[in-house]
Amino acid sequence: MASDRTIDTTWILVITLGVVTQMSLGLVHLNKAGAQITAPSVLSIAVVMALGLIGLQARPFAGDVRVEPGPLVELANTITQ
Predict the structure, then answer these.
(1) Transmembrane region positions (predicted)?
(2) What's the CA gap between 37 and 32, in Å, rounded?
């Protein structure tokens, strides 16, 4: 699983989908300025959070938030015994 790489076009498509959704939310709420600002803002926060969580899982053994290999090594040793 650690060698699995997500295709870059998939990420571009996800970001494009988020932008198109923001634009459609803004167009739906053209008559209400407050809703026109609030709806895309809430969506932006949700998209950033989702992409952040996906990004963390893309490389679980690298970066500031990473999974240490120690517990996995112990589990492998337990299974092989």
Answers:
(1) 12-31, 37-56
(2) 9
